[in-house]
Specification:
alpha/beta, Rossmann fold, Hypothetical Protein Yjia, Chain: A,domain 2, 2 domains, six-stranded antiparallel beta sheet, 12 helices, 15 strands, 27% strand
Length: 354
């Protein structure tokens, strides 16, 4: 199969700086050929002198990039773009400032033609350092954009003090502990950092978020227990620990569960499938690394709403601590139900004579 074109979904609240970033992509001499899909070309504010030629809703820039506007729906626009020409280094899809990025991301998993031609590379959310805390307080869309991201660009950092930036980053991490944060001024983040990330590549989940495997070494504000063998109230002595953000943003929160006991492979698979089938609309993102009993390799999975995929990855290293860890990000999450289901998948300990 021909190599698929990586797609970045670029989202962020009104005024966060998405347009500035798009202008850079469409005007700078970066030597790449990007296709940028926007809702309205005029809103991007590109200098007419930079447009080499225009054909209906498609604009070719003098740096080799292409900008086109959504006609009808995104799938139809993508089909039209890819049928005309497909020699792009990457495609960037810009969402409106009030859009939930979830349905946009799902498009690339459910349409057979797009599955064949493209691969979702990342959902990148641009946030405004000056106003993001206020937006998280009064806008459900802003919360969902942060919660769904697999990386964030914290823009306009020159408008906040270092202390304020620390508080902002702590708040963003409580809402989404999976997404790294890139600081920027005037959206001057390196394109190599935000494009070609492989954020939805199941084989790169661990390398992209190394702290994901170190639950006892998180930033301040996350409470973890290194001694997982200790029983916790309501944990039935299984050696589990969990944390969640007690600040409720539009009902969205993150919940992390860890277990030091090996898991029954069939049971954990059935539980995860049942969970996304019944609660997938409320689970924006989930990622996990599972220690399956009698399996040398780690089971790695991720889900986007009701779409779940998983695979066995590299072997556990000699002397490496083995445990299972899952992070859920979503709305109306029942922590007790998730913990109980997770615990029920632990493989029974071997008897004295085993």
């Amino acid at each position: 199969m021909a190599e698929r074109i990586p797609v970045t979904v670029l989202t962020g609240y009104l005024g966060a700086g998405k347009t500035t970033l798009l202008n850079r992509i469409l005007s700078e001499d970066h030597g790449r050929r990007y296709a940028v899909i926007v809702n309205e070309f005029g809103a991007v504010g590109i200098d007419n002198d930079l447009i080499l030629k225009a054909d209906e809703e498609l604009f070719e820039m003098n740096n080799g990039c292409i900008c086109c506007t959504v006609r009808g729906d995104l799938i139809r626009t993508m089909h039209g773009l890819l049928s005309r020409t497909a020699n792009f280094d990457a495609i960037i899809v810009e969402t409106t400032g009030l859009a939930d990025p979830g349905p946009v991301a799902q498009t690339f998993f459910v349409d057979p033609f797009l599955q064949e031609k493209t691969v979702l590379d990342s959902v990148t959310t641009v946030v405004d350092a000056r106003h993001i805390l206020l937006r998280l307080h009064d806008s459900r869309e802003a919360v969902e954009q942060v919660a769904f991201a697999d990386q964030m660009v914290l823009n306009k950092t020159e408008l906040a003090t270092e202390e304020e930036l620390g508080r902002i980053e702590a708040r963003l991490r409580r809402l989404n502990p999976l997404a790294p944060i890139h600081r920027a001024q005037r959206a001057n983040v390196s394109l190599d950092k935000v494009l070609g990330r492989g954020g939805f590549d199941i084989g790169r989940i661990v390398s992209l978020e190394p702290d994901f495997l170190r639950p006892a070494q998180c930033e301040a504000g996350h409470v973890h227990d290194e001694h997982c063998g200790h029983a916790h109230e309501g944990h039935h002595g299984h050696g589990h620990e969990d944390h969640h953000d007690h600040e409720h943003d539009a009902g969205i929160r993150s919940i992390a569960l860890t277990c030091a006991l090996p898991m029954n492979g069939e049971r954990i698979g059935m539980w995860l499938n049942a969970l996304v089938n019944s609660k997938g609309e409320d689970i924006l993102r989930a990622k996990g690394i599972i220690d399956v009993k009698d399996e040398k390799r780690r089971l790695v999975f991720q889900s986007v709403h009701m779409l779940l995929e998983g695979d066995l990855q590299r072997e556990w290293q000699a002397g490496e601590a083995r445990y299972s860890r899952i992070v859920f990000i979503g709305r109306n999450l029942d922590e007790h139900m998730l913990r109980k289901g997770f615990e029920s998948c632990a493989a029974p300990a071997a008897g004295p004579g085993a």
